[in-house]
Amino acid sequence: MTAQEVRLCGLLLQEHFGEVVEKVGTHLLRSGAINLRALAHETHTPLDLVKKSLCVLVQHGMCTFGPGRRGPGAPLEYCVSCERILYMLRYPRYIYTAKSLYGDTGELVIEEILQRGQMTMSSTVRTVADRLTQNMEDGQSTDYSEVINAFSRLVETHFLQRCPPVDKLGTSVSKRTTSGVPESPVPTITQPSHPENYPDCYQIPQIHLTGRGKRRRSDEDADVGERGAKRAKLEHAGACGDEGIYWQVNVERFHLHFRHQAIISAVASKLDQTSSEIVRTMLRMSEVTTPASAAYTQALSANEIFRAVPQSYNISRPILDQYLTLLVDDPMEFVGKTGDSGGGMYVVNLHRALANLARATLESVVQERFGSRSARIFRLLLRKRHLEQKQVEDFAMIPAKEAKDMLYTLLSENLVQLQEIPKTPDHAPSRTFYLYTVNQLPTARLLLQNCYKAVGNLIERRLFETRENKRHLEKSQRIEAILASLQTSGAEPTQLAEVEEMITPPERQQLEALRHHINKLDSSENQVDETIFLLESYVNSTSCSR
Questions:
Q1: Which residues are CB-neighbours of 426 under 8 A, at least 6 positions away?
Q2: Mean pLDDT over residues 285-308, rounded?
Q3: Are residues 309 and 453 in the same domain?
Q4: Mean pLDDT value across residues 151-165
Q5: Lowest mean pLDDT among 188-192, 341-345, 368-372
Q6: Does any domain span residue 228?
Q7: Same domain, yes or no: 151 and 245
Q8: Tens digits of residue pLDDT in 187-226
């Protein structure tokens, strides 16, 4: 864990949960596993606030706990996952993906669970149905069964999973102090290491929930509102059949979807749309059965792929065989072949695809920062592995002085490495080969840290802009609330116009400029996170393959 990661985690915790949670989480990141008393003492924070902060982190899956390192009877120790905190950067992408795959209902289900960390199915269904009902302009209500169907589809495709239960294994044997008074027993609690180890991870409970979403009461129906409130209270208090079964968002499944989309887009830009659709079909057929760390997808025959390709593409079997041969022979090596040359099965080479995507990202960064000629040298070193300076000049067809300057610039930025190979033991410069090379994995790690720093700077800038314009934002929110209340009560247009005129034209212009800046910062943050995801996936796949 680097300083840039800790800084970015602190900014994310502060933005989403406040200063106290940020203080506790950052200290846990720096100190590692620590017990509750020591954490409260070292952070100079009241014990009850530390407990609440830990509850928030545990609720959102960012903190784990387990027995102390000193053996049975030791206090529980808490540890924060930097990786889980950084996933908050991708919350907008998770919600947008759910919307594109399952519509507005799926979007609201994912949004609600991300906001609260863990929720029961019945509570999620009620909340989402109420929100959908509020958004409907025709006065209709959303049926609970519609939300239950969307929730079930998200579970079936593994975008949602059950939270692993916490096993209480009893309490440790109480010890006696020097005065003879026994100490209070310390509970021994363990957590499953991963939700996938839980056998009922994707089993949907049978809930007893019927009805429709409820709309907020207006002033004219306040007479029946009391009866409705009592009925809703009784419904919420009744047993739904899923008490104690909590659900969380399966971020690994979303990451698999992002990885597959990146591979499909790369194939479409390199070859054509039909090739990308064939690769999409292969990925879709094995997306649930292929582990996240697998080097290859499940092997598929040409007949299985032909049956699964959408009919709208009108691909005949000979055409499909030609496309598969083209994909296998392509230098990118996204699709591979297993078995003998006469038949065989086809797989998508996930590790190779991620390596090529990371390589393209590195090349684009070098081109944007140092120009097309430096990018040409960088690509040349990636392809040829080791070259002397004279060879770089000849192969890249760049004058000696310019090539030397570009190589030294890339070397100073740690994008290019210099390797010395002496001919004699004395390492004399005249009898030593100086070879330039590019190590893709360390370079990807370096760029990843730069991306963490960039996202941290974007968040700090957004917080600064918000603080500087806090007065205008609060005034705008107050006026919007007044307008909303007047519109609900049926005010005249002249009254609404008078309230709108409370914001002067210069203030309105300043608010528009602020919204424009905030939107640009948000979109930049999402774009940098796409680069972070590609580089993280490549680094993790390389670590798993070794």
A1: none
A2: 81
A3: no
A4: 88
A5: 188-192
A6: no
A7: yes
A8: 444 454 455 566 678 888 887 777 676 765 544 444 434 4
Residue-range definition of the domain harbouring residue 192 = 88-170+188-216+234-249
Please indicate, yes or no, whether residues 244 and 285 belong to a single structural domain of this protein.
Answer: no
The verdict on residue 101 lying in a domain is yes
Q: Which amino acid type is present at position 217?
A: R
Among candidate residues 388, 458, 456, 450, the one with its CA nearest the CA of residue 415? 450
Q: What is the CATH number of the domain that holds 342?
A: 1.10.10.10
Q: Are 65 and 43 in contact (CB under 8 A)?
A: no
CA distance 100 to 107: 8
Residue 174 contacts residue 184 (beta carbons within 8 Å)? yes
Q: How many CB atoms are closer than 10 A to CB 462?
A: 19
Task: Tell me, yes or no, whether 307 and 433 share the same domain.
Answer: no
What's the whole-number mean pLDDT along residues 501-529? Answer: 87
* Confidence band of 545 (pLDDT split at 50, 70, 90): low
User: What is the distance in angstroms between the CA of the first residue and the CA of the last residue of the chain?
Assistant: 20
- 333: phi then psi, degrees, rounded to nearest 5: 60, 40
Which residue type does 398 have? Answer: I
Boundary of a domain, candidates 315, 348, 381: 348
The residue count for the chain: 546
Q: What contacts 314, CB < 8 A, 6 or more positions away?
A: none
Is residue 161 domain-shared with residue 245, that is, in the same domain? yes
Of 449, 509, 485, the residue nearest 86 (C-alpha): 449
Regarding beta strands 119-120 and 63-66, do their DSSP bridges make them parallel or antiparallel, or are they unpaired?
Answer: unpaired
- Per DSSP bridges, beta strands 246-249 and 119-120 are antiparallel
Does 242 share its domain with 258? Answer: no
- Domain count along the chain: 5
Structural domain ending residue among the three candidates 318, 348, 378: 348
Tell me whether residue 176 is in a domain: no
Identify which of 347, 201, 196 has the alpha carbon closest to the alpha carbon of residue 286: 347
DSSP assignment of 245-273 equals -EEEE-HHHHHHHHHHHHHHHHHHHHS-H
Same domain, 22 and 34: yes
Ranges 297-301, 357-361, 367-371, 488-492: which has the least confidence: 488-492
Say which residues have a Cβ less than 8 Å from residue 243's Cβ, sequence separation at least 6: 120
Residue 176 phi/psi, 5-degree rounding, is -105, 135
pLDDT-based confidence at residue 466 (cuts at 50, 70, 90): confident
Looking at the structure, do residues 278 and 297 belong to the same domain, yes or no? yes
Q: Is residue 16 part of a domain?
A: yes
What's the token pair of residue 30? 């720096």
Amino acid at 344: G
What the block records as the tokens of 282 is 């292969």
Would you tell me the crossing angle of helices 91-116 and 251-270 to the nearest 10 degrees?
A: 170
**Mean per-residue pLDDT for 60-72?**
79
